[in-house]
Amino acid sequence: MDIHEAVTVALAQGKTLERFKAELEPKLAKRGWLGRALMPDGSVVELGTPRRLKLIYDTNLRTSRAAGQWARIDSHKAVLPYLRYGLGPSKEHREDHVQWEGLVLPVDDLFWDTHMPPNGFGCRCRVRQLTADEAKKRGISESPDLRHTTWTHKRTGEVMEVPEGVDPGWDHNPGKARASERQRRDKEKTQAFEQTVGTADKPAPLPRRVVPSALSTLKNIDGEDINRILEAIPGAAERIDKLRTFTHTKGMKTLIIKQAEMGERNRGASLIRDRVIGYLDEEQERYGRYNYTIRNPARVGGFTADVFNHVVVKGNSKVRFSERNVEKVASSLKASVKEAAGQRGPDDSPRRWTLGTGLSPEAELVATWVHEVGHQVHFWAGGERAEMVAKRFLSRYAMSGISMGDFYEYHAEHFCAWLFDRDAFAEFDPEAADYFDRLIDKAIDGKERKRHDRR
Asked: In this structure, are 260 and 399 located in the same domain?
Protein backbone atom coordinates (compact mmCIF):
# COMPACT_ATOMS: atom_id res chain seq x y z
CA MET A 1 0.00 0.00 0.00
CA ASP A 2 2.89 2.36 0.73
CA ILE A 3 4.40 1.67 -2.71
CA HIS A 4 1.02 2.01 -4.46
CA GLU A 5 0.35 5.35 -2.74
CA ALA A 6 3.83 6.63 -3.53
CA VAL A 7 3.56 5.64 -7.20
CA THR A 8 0.12 7.28 -7.52
CA VAL A 9 1.38 10.54 -6.01
CA ALA A 10 4.58 10.45 -8.09
CA LEU A 11 2.62 10.07 -11.32
CA ALA A 12 0.11 12.75 -10.38
CA GLN A 13 2.78 15.25 -9.33
CA GLY A 14 5.43 14.33 -11.92
CA LYS A 15 8.06 13.41 -9.33
CA THR A 16 11.51 12.31 -10.46
CA LEU A 17 12.84 8.83 -9.72
CA GLU A 18 15.30 10.25 -7.18
CA ARG A 19 12.55 12.04 -5.24
CA PHE A 20 10.31 8.98 -5.45
CA LYS A 21 13.01 6.76 -3.92
CA ALA A 22 14.07 9.35 -1.32
CA GLU A 23 10.50 9.62 0.02
CA LEU A 24 9.63 5.92 -0.17
CA GLU A 25 12.77 4.21 1.14
CA PRO A 26 12.40 5.48 4.77
CA LYS A 27 8.84 4.14 4.88
CA LEU A 28 9.92 0.75 3.54
CA ALA A 29 12.83 0.57 5.97
CA LYS A 30 10.53 1.34 8.90
CA ARG A 31 8.18 -1.50 7.91
CA GLY A 32 10.96 -4.01 7.19
CA TRP A 33 10.48 -4.04 3.41
CA LEU A 34 14.11 -3.39 2.46
CA GLY A 35 16.63 -6.17 1.95
CA ARG A 36 16.00 -9.93 1.88
CA ALA A 37 12.73 -11.49 3.05
CA LEU A 38 11.41 -15.01 3.56
CA MET A 39 8.28 -15.85 1.55
CA PRO A 40 5.50 -18.20 2.80
CA ASP A 41 6.72 -20.92 0.40
CA GLY A 42 10.19 -20.87 1.97
CA SER A 43 11.96 -18.95 -0.79
CA VAL A 44 14.06 -15.85 -0.11
CA VAL A 45 13.63 -12.74 -2.27
CA GLU A 46 15.05 -9.25 -2.39
CA LEU A 47 12.52 -6.56 -1.43
CA GLY A 48 12.75 -2.83 -1.97
CA THR A 49 16.24 -2.71 -3.49
CA PRO A 50 17.13 0.50 -5.37
CA ARG A 51 17.02 -1.50 -8.62
CA ARG A 52 13.58 -2.87 -7.77
CA LEU A 53 12.22 0.58 -6.84
CA LYS A 54 13.53 1.94 -10.15
CA LEU A 55 11.75 -0.89 -11.96
CA ILE A 56 8.49 -0.19 -10.10
CA TYR A 57 8.70 3.51 -10.85
CA ASP A 58 9.63 3.02 -14.50
CA THR A 59 6.98 0.33 -15.07
CA ASN A 60 4.13 2.33 -13.61
CA LEU A 61 5.22 5.51 -15.36
CA ARG A 62 5.31 3.86 -18.77
CA THR A 63 2.07 1.97 -18.24
CA SER A 64 0.29 5.12 -17.12
CA ARG A 65 1.60 7.05 -20.12
CA ALA A 66 0.57 4.24 -22.46
CA ALA A 67 -2.96 4.30 -21.04
CA GLY A 68 -3.17 8.05 -21.52
CA GLN A 69 -1.73 7.75 -25.02
CA TRP A 70 -4.35 5.17 -25.99
CA ALA A 71 -7.13 7.52 -24.90
CA ARG A 72 -5.76 10.12 -27.34
CA ILE A 73 -5.30 7.49 -30.07
CA ASP A 74 -8.88 6.31 -29.73
CA SER A 75 -10.28 9.85 -29.78
CA HIS A 76 -8.29 10.79 -32.93
CA LYS A 77 -8.63 7.58 -34.93
CA ALA A 78 -11.14 9.17 -37.33
CA VAL A 79 -8.35 11.35 -38.80
CA LEU A 80 -5.35 9.21 -37.69
CA PRO A 81 -6.61 5.66 -38.26
CA TYR A 82 -3.28 3.77 -38.22
CA LEU A 83 -0.48 3.00 -35.76
CA ARG A 84 3.18 2.27 -36.49
CA TYR A 85 5.20 0.15 -34.06
CA GLY A 86 8.64 1.59 -33.29
CA LEU A 87 11.63 0.63 -31.16
CA GLY A 88 12.70 2.83 -28.29
CA PRO A 89 16.12 4.32 -27.45
CA SER A 90 17.47 1.19 -25.73
CA LYS A 91 21.04 0.05 -26.48
CA GLU A 92 19.83 -3.50 -27.08
CA HIS A 93 16.44 -4.63 -28.35
CA ARG A 94 14.65 -7.93 -27.86
CA GLU A 95 14.54 -10.02 -31.04
CA ASP A 96 10.76 -10.41 -30.93
CA HIS A 97 10.29 -6.66 -30.59
CA VAL A 98 12.67 -6.00 -33.50
CA GLN A 99 10.47 -8.06 -35.82
CA TRP A 100 7.51 -5.76 -35.04
CA GLU A 101 9.47 -2.58 -35.82
CA GLY A 102 7.80 -0.66 -38.66
CA LEU A 103 4.56 -2.65 -38.44
CA VAL A 104 1.65 -0.46 -39.66
CA LEU A 105 -1.84 -1.59 -38.65
CA PRO A 106 -5.27 -0.01 -38.16
CA VAL A 107 -5.99 1.34 -34.66
CA ASP A 108 -8.78 -1.23 -34.24
CA ASP A 109 -6.61 -4.23 -35.20
CA LEU A 110 -6.63 -6.98 -32.55
CA PHE A 111 -2.82 -6.89 -32.50
CA TRP A 112 -2.92 -3.78 -30.30
CA ASP A 113 -5.07 -5.56 -27.69
CA THR A 114 -2.04 -7.61 -26.62
CA HIS A 115 0.98 -5.81 -28.12
CA MET A 116 0.46 -2.16 -27.27
CA PRO A 117 3.83 -1.03 -25.76
CA PRO A 118 5.26 -1.44 -23.23
CA ASN A 119 5.45 -5.21 -23.75
CA GLY A 120 7.55 -6.11 -20.74
CA PHE A 121 9.72 -4.83 -17.92
CA GLY A 122 12.10 -2.20 -19.23
CA CYS A 123 10.49 -2.18 -22.69
CA ARG A 124 10.87 1.23 -24.36
CA CYS A 125 8.98 0.45 -27.54
CA ARG A 126 6.43 2.98 -28.73
CA VAL A 127 3.79 3.65 -31.37
CA ARG A 128 3.14 6.59 -33.67
CA GLN A 129 -0.28 7.45 -35.04
CA LEU A 130 -0.55 7.96 -38.81
CA THR A 131 -2.99 9.37 -41.31
CA ALA A 132 -4.33 7.06 -44.02
CA ASP A 133 -1.99 8.69 -46.59
CA GLU A 134 1.07 8.23 -44.36
CA ALA A 135 0.14 4.60 -43.75
CA LYS A 136 -0.17 3.91 -47.49
CA LYS A 137 3.24 5.51 -48.19
CA ARG A 138 4.90 3.37 -45.49
CA GLY A 139 2.94 0.30 -46.48
CA ILE A 140 0.07 -1.15 -44.49
CA SER A 141 1.05 -4.47 -42.94
CA GLU A 142 -0.89 -7.67 -42.66
CA SER A 143 -2.00 -8.48 -39.14
CA PRO A 144 0.59 -10.99 -37.87
CA ASP A 145 -0.33 -14.45 -36.65
CA LEU A 146 -0.04 -14.40 -32.88
CA ARG A 147 1.76 -17.39 -31.45
CA HIS A 148 1.60 -18.23 -27.76
CA THR A 149 4.05 -19.94 -25.49
CA THR A 150 3.70 -21.59 -22.09
CA TRP A 151 5.31 -19.77 -19.18
CA THR A 152 5.81 -21.20 -15.69
CA HIS A 153 6.42 -19.06 -12.61
CA LYS A 154 9.65 -20.38 -11.09
CA ARG A 155 8.67 -19.72 -7.47
CA THR A 156 4.92 -20.45 -7.40
CA GLY A 157 4.66 -22.98 -10.22
CA GLU A 158 1.81 -21.03 -11.84
CA VAL A 159 1.42 -21.83 -15.56
CA MET A 160 -0.01 -19.42 -18.15
CA GLU A 161 -0.17 -18.91 -21.90
CA VAL A 162 1.41 -15.66 -23.14
CA PRO A 163 2.07 -14.23 -26.63
CA GLU A 164 5.61 -14.80 -27.84
CA GLY A 165 7.79 -11.78 -27.20
CA VAL A 166 5.51 -10.33 -24.50
CA ASP A 167 6.41 -10.69 -20.83
CA PRO A 168 3.89 -12.46 -18.58
CA GLY A 169 1.29 -10.00 -17.32
CA TRP A 170 1.96 -7.52 -20.15
CA ASP A 171 -0.32 -9.07 -22.79
CA HIS A 172 -2.98 -6.37 -22.54
CA ASN A 173 -3.62 -2.82 -23.68
CA PRO A 174 -3.48 -0.63 -20.52
CA GLY A 175 -5.52 2.10 -22.23
CA LYS A 176 -8.33 -0.27 -23.21
CA ALA A 177 -8.26 -1.82 -19.74
CA ARG A 178 -8.60 1.65 -18.21
CA ALA A 179 -11.40 2.57 -20.64
CA SER A 180 -13.24 -0.66 -19.84
CA GLU A 181 -12.90 -0.03 -16.11
CA ARG A 182 -14.07 3.56 -16.58
CA GLN A 183 -17.11 2.37 -18.54
CA ARG A 184 -17.91 -0.10 -15.78
CA ARG A 185 -17.66 2.62 -13.13
CA ASP A 186 -19.68 5.06 -15.24
CA LYS A 187 -22.38 2.41 -15.61
CA GLU A 188 -22.42 1.84 -11.83
CA LYS A 189 -22.60 5.60 -11.22
CA THR A 190 -25.44 5.98 -13.73
CA GLN A 191 -27.38 3.17 -12.07
CA ALA A 192 -26.82 4.65 -8.62
CA PHE A 193 -27.78 8.09 -9.89
CA GLU A 194 -31.00 6.81 -11.47
CA GLN A 195 -31.89 4.92 -8.30
CA THR A 196 -31.55 8.13 -6.31
CA VAL A 197 -32.78 10.77 -8.76
CA GLY A 198 -34.67 8.69 -11.31
CA THR A 199 -34.78 9.34 -15.03
CA ALA A 200 -36.13 12.18 -17.17
CA ASP A 201 -39.31 10.16 -17.75
CA LYS A 202 -39.68 9.02 -14.16
CA PRO A 203 -37.86 11.27 -11.68
CA ALA A 204 -37.52 9.96 -8.15
CA PRO A 205 -38.88 12.09 -5.31
CA LEU A 206 -36.08 14.20 -3.88
CA PRO A 207 -35.18 13.67 -0.22
CA ARG A 208 -36.83 16.25 2.02
CA ARG A 209 -34.22 17.31 4.52
CA VAL A 210 -35.13 19.21 7.67
CA VAL A 211 -32.51 21.79 6.67
CA PRO A 212 -33.43 22.24 2.99
CA SER A 213 -30.20 24.08 2.22
CA ALA A 214 -27.33 25.75 4.02
CA LEU A 215 -24.37 27.95 3.20
CA SER A 216 -21.45 27.31 5.52
CA THR A 217 -18.12 29.13 5.54
CA LEU A 218 -16.63 26.43 7.80
CA LYS A 219 -15.20 23.20 6.41
CA ASN A 220 -16.14 21.23 9.53
CA ILE A 221 -19.88 22.06 9.51
CA ASP A 222 -22.64 21.85 6.93
CA GLY A 223 -26.41 21.57 6.84
CA GLU A 224 -26.31 17.81 6.48
CA ASP A 225 -24.65 17.56 9.91
CA ILE A 226 -27.68 19.24 11.49
CA ASN A 227 -30.01 17.00 9.48
CA ARG A 228 -28.38 13.81 10.74
CA ILE A 229 -28.65 14.89 14.38
CA LEU A 230 -32.29 15.96 14.13
CA GLU A 231 -33.33 12.77 12.35
CA ALA A 232 -31.67 10.73 15.12
CA ILE A 233 -33.46 12.32 18.12
CA PRO A 234 -35.26 9.41 19.84
CA GLY A 235 -39.06 9.52 19.62
CA ALA A 236 -39.16 12.80 17.66
CA ALA A 237 -39.92 11.48 14.15
CA GLU A 238 -43.47 12.88 13.95
CA ARG A 239 -42.44 16.34 15.14
CA ILE A 240 -39.36 16.34 12.91
CA ASP A 241 -41.65 15.60 9.97
CA LYS A 242 -43.78 18.62 10.91
CA LEU A 243 -40.67 20.79 11.09
CA ARG A 244 -39.50 19.42 7.73
CA THR A 245 -42.83 20.39 6.20
CA PHE A 246 -42.49 23.88 7.65
CA THR A 247 -38.93 24.52 6.42
CA HIS A 248 -39.74 23.25 2.91
CA THR A 249 -43.06 25.09 2.67
CA LYS A 250 -41.37 28.36 3.57
CA GLY A 251 -38.12 27.70 1.67
CA MET A 252 -36.12 28.29 4.85
CA LYS A 253 -32.39 28.89 4.36
CA THR A 254 -29.49 28.61 6.77
CA LEU A 255 -26.21 30.50 7.14
CA ILE A 256 -23.44 28.88 9.21
CA ILE A 257 -20.62 31.40 9.57
CA LYS A 258 -17.68 32.30 11.80
CA GLN A 259 -17.81 34.92 14.54
CA ALA A 260 -15.21 36.95 12.61
CA GLU A 261 -17.70 37.19 9.74
CA MET A 262 -20.67 38.26 11.88
CA GLY A 263 -19.41 41.65 13.09
CA GLU A 264 -20.91 44.66 11.31
CA ARG A 265 -17.49 46.22 10.67
CA ASN A 266 -15.41 43.07 10.38
CA ARG A 267 -13.35 42.59 7.25
CA GLY A 268 -14.47 38.96 7.21
CA ALA A 269 -18.06 40.11 6.77
CA SER A 270 -17.11 42.09 3.67
CA LEU A 271 -15.29 39.13 2.15
CA ILE A 272 -18.34 36.85 2.21
CA ARG A 273 -20.95 39.47 1.29
CA ASP A 274 -21.41 38.55 -2.39
CA ARG A 275 -21.44 34.85 -1.60
CA VAL A 276 -24.11 35.23 1.06
CA ILE A 277 -26.32 37.64 -0.91
CA GLY A 278 -26.13 35.33 -3.91
CA TYR A 279 -27.38 32.45 -1.77
CA LEU A 280 -30.29 34.24 -0.07
CA ASP A 281 -33.68 35.05 -1.58
CA GLU A 282 -33.90 38.14 -3.78
CA GLU A 283 -36.12 39.92 -1.24
CA GLN A 284 -33.22 39.78 1.24
CA GLU A 285 -30.78 41.58 -1.06
CA ARG A 286 -31.86 45.02 0.16
CA TYR A 287 -30.59 44.25 3.68
CA GLY A 288 -27.04 43.69 2.43
CA ARG A 289 -24.61 42.61 5.14
CA TYR A 290 -27.27 43.08 7.82
CA ASN A 291 -28.59 39.70 6.68
CA TYR A 292 -25.74 38.04 8.55
CA THR A 293 -24.02 40.62 10.79
CA ILE A 294 -24.85 41.77 14.29
CA ARG A 295 -23.50 44.39 16.68
CA ASN A 296 -21.90 42.09 19.27
CA PRO A 297 -21.34 38.61 17.73
CA ALA A 298 -19.34 37.37 20.71
CA ARG A 299 -22.51 37.35 22.83
CA VAL A 300 -24.78 35.42 20.47
CA GLY A 301 -24.91 31.91 19.07
CA GLY A 302 -27.23 32.86 16.23
CA PHE A 303 -30.03 35.19 15.21
CA THR A 304 -32.87 35.79 12.77
CA ALA A 305 -35.55 38.43 12.17
CA ASP A 306 -39.14 38.68 11.06
CA VAL A 307 -37.98 40.26 7.76
CA PHE A 308 -35.64 37.33 7.02
CA ASN A 309 -36.43 34.01 5.47
CA HIS A 310 -33.25 32.52 6.87
CA VAL A 311 -31.50 31.86 10.16
CA VAL A 312 -27.89 32.58 11.08
CA VAL A 313 -25.88 30.19 13.25
CA LYS A 314 -22.38 30.87 14.55
CA GLY A 315 -19.96 28.00 13.99
CA ASN A 316 -16.42 27.37 15.16
CA SER A 317 -13.54 24.94 14.73
CA LYS A 318 -14.35 23.08 17.99
CA VAL A 319 -17.44 21.52 16.44
CA ARG A 320 -16.65 17.99 15.24
CA PHE A 321 -19.56 16.09 13.72
CA SER A 322 -18.94 12.43 12.94
CA GLU A 323 -20.94 9.27 12.34
CA ARG A 324 -19.85 8.01 15.77
CA ASN A 325 -21.30 10.88 17.78
CA VAL A 326 -24.67 11.31 16.01
CA GLU A 327 -26.69 9.23 18.49
CA LYS A 328 -24.86 10.70 21.48
CA VAL A 329 -25.55 14.29 20.39
CA ALA A 330 -29.18 13.52 19.51
CA SER A 331 -29.79 11.82 22.86
CA SER A 332 -28.24 14.72 24.76
CA LEU A 333 -30.68 17.13 23.10
CA LYS A 334 -33.61 15.02 24.22
CA ALA A 335 -32.20 14.67 27.73
CA SER A 336 -31.72 18.45 28.02
CA VAL A 337 -35.49 18.98 28.34
CA LYS A 338 -35.94 16.71 31.34
CA GLU A 339 -32.74 18.01 32.91
CA ALA A 340 -33.87 21.63 32.52
CA ALA A 341 -37.25 20.79 34.03
CA GLY A 342 -35.51 19.25 37.06
CA GLN A 343 -33.09 22.14 37.60
CA ARG A 344 -35.39 24.50 39.51
CA GLY A 345 -34.81 27.21 42.06
CA PRO A 346 -36.74 27.47 45.38
CA ASP A 347 -39.38 29.66 43.70
CA ASP A 348 -39.74 27.25 40.75
CA SER A 349 -37.50 29.50 38.64
CA PRO A 350 -35.20 27.88 36.07
CA ARG A 351 -31.50 27.49 36.81
CA ARG A 352 -30.36 26.77 33.25
CA TRP A 353 -29.69 29.77 30.98
CA THR A 354 -30.73 28.01 27.74
CA LEU A 355 -31.60 24.43 26.78
CA GLY A 356 -28.25 24.24 24.97
CA THR A 357 -26.19 25.40 27.96
CA GLY A 358 -23.72 22.79 29.16
CA LEU A 359 -24.07 20.56 26.08
CA SER A 360 -21.33 19.58 23.65
CA PRO A 361 -20.38 22.12 20.94
CA GLU A 362 -22.19 19.94 18.39
CA ALA A 363 -25.42 19.72 20.42
CA GLU A 364 -25.27 23.42 21.24
CA LEU A 365 -25.00 24.32 17.55
CA VAL A 366 -28.02 22.16 16.64
CA ALA A 367 -30.00 23.61 19.57
CA THR A 368 -29.15 27.11 18.32
CA TRP A 369 -30.42 26.27 14.84
CA VAL A 370 -33.70 24.92 16.27
CA HIS A 371 -34.00 27.96 18.55
CA GLU A 372 -33.69 30.37 15.61
CA VAL A 373 -36.09 28.33 13.49
CA GLY A 374 -38.43 28.46 16.48
CA HIS A 375 -38.52 32.24 16.02
CA GLN A 376 -39.47 31.74 12.38
CA VAL A 377 -42.24 29.32 13.38
CA HIS A 378 -43.51 32.02 15.73
CA PHE A 379 -43.40 34.69 13.00
CA TRP A 380 -45.19 32.52 10.41
CA ALA A 381 -47.83 31.55 12.99
CA GLY A 382 -48.75 35.22 13.34
CA GLY A 383 -46.43 36.39 16.12
CA GLU A 384 -48.75 35.34 18.95
CA ARG A 385 -48.14 36.73 22.44
CA ALA A 386 -48.84 33.46 24.34
CA GLU A 387 -49.74 35.33 27.54
CA MET A 388 -52.11 32.61 28.70
CA VAL A 389 -49.55 29.76 28.53
CA ALA A 390 -46.28 31.55 29.36
CA LYS A 391 -46.41 30.75 33.08
CA ARG A 392 -43.62 28.23 33.55
CA PHE A 393 -40.17 28.44 32.00
CA LEU A 394 -37.52 25.83 31.25
CA SER A 395 -34.70 28.39 30.91
CA ARG A 396 -33.90 31.85 32.15
CA TYR A 397 -33.44 33.04 28.57
CA ALA A 398 -37.06 32.08 27.87
CA MET A 399 -38.09 34.65 30.48
CA SER A 400 -36.13 37.54 28.95
CA GLY A 401 -38.43 40.33 27.80
CA ILE A 402 -41.59 38.80 29.32
CA SER A 403 -41.95 41.68 31.80
CA MET A 404 -42.19 44.06 28.82
CA GLY A 405 -44.58 41.85 26.88
CA ASP A 406 -41.84 40.31 24.71
CA PHE A 407 -42.60 36.60 24.16
CA TYR A 408 -40.05 35.91 21.42
CA GLU A 409 -37.50 33.96 23.47
CA TYR A 410 -40.27 32.08 25.24
CA HIS A 411 -41.39 30.72 21.87
CA ALA A 412 -37.88 29.90 20.62
CA GLU A 413 -36.73 28.12 23.78
CA HIS A 414 -39.90 26.12 24.32
CA PHE A 415 -40.13 25.21 20.64
CA CYS A 416 -36.78 23.44 21.23
CA ALA A 417 -38.27 21.63 24.23
CA TRP A 418 -41.35 20.62 22.25
CA LEU A 419 -39.21 19.29 19.38
CA PHE A 420 -36.56 17.48 21.46
CA ASP A 421 -38.85 15.75 23.98
CA ARG A 422 -42.54 16.59 23.92
CA ASP A 423 -43.38 14.03 26.62
CA ALA A 424 -40.99 15.59 29.12
CA PHE A 425 -42.19 19.05 28.11
CA ALA A 426 -45.87 18.01 28.51
CA GLU A 427 -45.11 16.63 31.96
CA PHE A 428 -43.56 19.97 32.86
CA ASP A 429 -46.29 22.12 31.25
CA PRO A 430 -49.11 20.22 29.45
CA GLU A 431 -50.91 23.39 28.37
CA ALA A 432 -47.75 24.73 26.70
CA ALA A 433 -47.11 21.42 24.92
CA ASP A 434 -50.61 21.55 23.41
CA TYR A 435 -50.02 25.18 22.45
CA PHE A 436 -46.91 24.28 20.41
CA ASP A 437 -48.79 21.42 18.73
CA ARG A 438 -51.15 24.03 17.35
CA LEU A 439 -48.44 26.61 16.71
CA ILE A 440 -46.48 24.49 14.21
CA ASP A 441 -49.67 23.78 12.23
CA LYS A 442 -50.50 27.48 12.11
CA ALA A 443 -46.96 28.24 10.98
CA ILE A 444 -47.15 25.71 8.15
CA ASP A 445 -50.40 27.31 6.93
CA GLY A 446 -49.17 30.88 7.55
CA LYS A 447 -49.10 33.26 4.59
CA GLU A 448 -46.75 35.94 5.95
CA ARG A 449 -44.34 36.62 8.78
CA LYS A 450 -45.66 38.78 11.60
CA ARG A 451 -44.36 40.19 14.87
CA HIS A 452 -46.50 40.80 17.91
CA ASP A 453 -46.49 44.25 19.48
CA ARG A 454 -45.28 44.75 23.02
CA ARG A 455 -47.72 46.05 25.59
From this structure: yes
Q: Report the number of distinct structural domains present in the chain.
A: 4
Full domain range(s) for residue 118: 78-172
The answer to whether residue 452 sits within a structural domain is no
CA–chain centroid gap for 156, Å, is 43
Q: Tell me: the pLDDT tens digits for 394-449?
A: 999 999 989 888 899 999 999 999 999 999 999 999 999 999 999 999 999 999 99
How far CA 384 is from CA of 138, 375, 408, 442, in Å, comes to 90, 11, 9, 11
Residue 445 DSSP code: H
* Burial profile 385-419: b = 16 or more Cβ within 10 angstroms, e = fewer: bbeebbebbbbbbbbbebeeeebbbbbbbbbbbbb
The H-assigned helical ranges of 116-202 are: 132-138, 174-197
Q: Which tens digit of pLDDT belongs to each residue from 375-385? A: 999 999 999 89
Please tell me whether residues 24 and 63 are part of one structural domain: yes
Query: What's the rounded Cα separation, in Å, for the pair 126 and 116?
Result: 8
The answer to whether position 454 is within a domain reads no
Cα dihedral sign, 309-315-319-321: positive
